[in-house]
Specification:
membrane, transmembrane helix, TBL_C, 11 helices, 451 residues, transmembrane, single chain, alpha/beta, four-stranded mixed sheet, Rossmann fold, Protein trichome birefringence-like 19, binds 2-acetamido-2-deoxy-beta-D-glucopyranose
Length: 451
């Protein structure tokens, strides 16, 4: 009952003839939400934030031509999509799925060495056997044929770091039951590779840009992390992707873990601060500052593109799970089961970075809307927070190998929980068609109510 009232919030504005009883209920729900927000920000996020951002039915829509883009959704999918349009698919629990995984390291060649956990002797397999269950609806398991049908003739770019690549490789593996892509770029460099699914004329591309903005690694051996020092130009585009992205129908944008490194910030071509750099006369102003500016600049780049007509998906921060120390202090991730949502919560720096992303997303989205551009939140944070068991840990390489990230609690084993990001993505692509229809309907309702 309460839930219904929350769902009806957006349309409540448009139907003034609502009985007062509902109004009282609405007020109490709002009050409850405020209280909940104080004590449990992640519940607040799931109940309120993602709904208003994601369903966003009041978006004074963009061109009507965009609504036909996704009209090839199968008829029999429509009922479930209608209900999911009002459901926050990103709040839920992991539930057992004996049918998973849907590929292995022998059926899929796209698994990156460092995420091929079974090859390197990971002893447990239970981490592959879960699926995400949203609290208020079902999230169908990925259907590769349906995905490829929806993206027929389109192009998708993964813009970001190695976690973004991790997601792309997971998608390739999930799609491999139907088709493998061929390389169509002149380079096989995984950082800037371009694939094609020839039967579907679907292009998939990677753009390596761990900071999303112009950056440069500089030699600085005495740095505190001994892991290089990066110069970040917070107000300058990274042209490696911004000049290439116009033609794409979908951009999946993400950034995160590189902001934990030593960085010096430049703005207006002069040093404006740093993170963990220990350089005389340069003030440490924290990673949050750069994270915010990086997203702001990336959105500015997208919103200033001449010909871009695509949808930008912001894949939110996926927390790492080091316990008993950080990555360079012997920390590790040894759990073998997901958390339930009541066993952990987003806090500290992870929460801060997440909030920054949401805030900048909202601003970027607002600016983009003026130009008819669409932004969507691929809000993976809560689901991944609950998966301390999904990382390679020490099974991303042979035991005697000398690698920087010995215990990897940042990336995700393949197969593994990151496969769920494709479940989310497919659901969002399906909802896109419904959303356009709803927006149209709302505009009509609005017109008739007011006249
Ligand atoms: C409803 O109409 C008002 C006034 O004409 C307008 O400002 C608003 O954007 C419309 N809402 C939608 C969802 O179209
Ligand atoms: C796949 O994993 C198995 C262990 O489950 C391992 O023995 C094998 O070497 C791996 N194969 C590849 C191609 O990675
Ligand atoms: C950079 O220059 C602009 C305009 O010239 C100014 O508004 C802004 O505050 C400057 N930023 C920094 C960090 O100095
Ligand atoms: C730091 O500032 C002081 C005083 O302005 C100056 O004498 C010194 O050379 C500066 N050091 C560096 C490394 O720029
Ligand atoms: C979390 O919820 C489950 C199921 O509702 C319950 O069995 C468990 O005791 C709860 N755990 C904590 C730490 O509250
Ligand atoms: C590991 O590699 C680093 C840098 O390449 C080197 O300095 C170090 O000596 C190596 N350690 C071992 C145990 O080989």
């Amino acid at each position: 009952m309460e839930h219904q009232a929350i769902d009806e919030l957006p349309s409540g504005k448009i139907c003034p003839q609502k009985p007062p009883k509902n109004f009282v209920l609405l007020v109490s729900v709002l009050l409850l939400l405020t209280i909940v927000q104080l004590y449990h920000p992640s519940i607040f996020r799931s109940l309120f934030l993602s709904k208003t951002i994601d369903s966003n039915p009041q978006v004074p829509s963009t061109s009507s031509s965009s609504s036909s883009d996704h009209s090839n959704v199968q008829e029999d999918d429509l009922p479930s999509i209608t209900s999911n349009l009002k459901c926050d698919i990103f709040t839920g629990e992991w539930v057992p799925n004996p049918e998973a995984p849907y590929y292995t390291n022998t059926t899929c060649w796209a698994i990156h060495e460092h995420q091929n956990c079974m090859k390197y002797g990971r002893p447990d397999a239970e981490f592959m056997k879960w699926k995400w269950k949203p609290d208020d609806c079902e999230l169908p398991v990925f259907n590769p044929a349906q995905f490829l049908e929806l993206v027929r003739g389109k192009s998708m770019a993964f813009v970001g770091d190695s976690v973004g690549r991790n997601q792309m490789q997971s998608l390739i593996c999930l799609l491999s039951r139907v088709e493998y892509p061929i390389v169509v770029s002149s380079t096989e460099d995984q950082r800037f590779i371009r694939w094609k699914y020839t039967s579907y004329k679907f292009t998939l591309a990677a753009f390596w840009t761990p900071y999303l903005i112009k950056s440069k690694q500089v030699t600085y051996t005495e740095g505190p992390t001994k892991n290089g020092l990066f110069e970040l130009y917070l107000d300058e585009f990274d042209e490696a992707w911004t000049t290439q992205i116009d033609e794409f129908d979908y951009i999946i944008l993400s950034a995160g873990h590189w902001f934990f490194r030593s960085m010096v910030y430049y703005e207006n071509q002069t040093i404006s601060g740093c993170n963990y750099c220990l350089i005389d006369n340069v003030t440490d102003i924290g990673k949050q500052y750069a994270y915010r500016k990086a997203f702001r600049t990336a959105f500015k780049a997208i919103n200033s593109l001449e010909n871009f007509k695509g949808i930008t998906y912001i894949r939110t921060f996926a927390p790492s799970h080091f316990e008993n120390g950080m990555w360079n202090e012997g920390g590790n991730c040894l759990r073998t089961k997901p958390y339930r949502s009541n066993e952990t919560r987003l806090e500290g720096l992870d929460l801060e970075l997440y909030k920054i992303q949401i805030e900048e997303y909202r601003k970027g989205e607002r600016e983009g809307r003026k130009k008819g551009l669409k932004y969507r939140l691929l809000d993976t944070t809560q689901a991944m927070l609950l998966r301390p068991d999904g990382h390679p840990s020490r099974y991303g390489h042979w035991p005697n190998e000398n690698v920087t990230l010995y215990n990897d609690c940042v990336h995700w084993c393949l197969p593994g929980p990151i496969d769920t990001w494709s479940d989310f993505l497919l659901e969002m692509l399906k909802m896109e068609g419904m959303r356009s229809a709803e927006e149209k309907k709302l505009r009509i309702t609005n017109d008739t109510t007011l006249n």
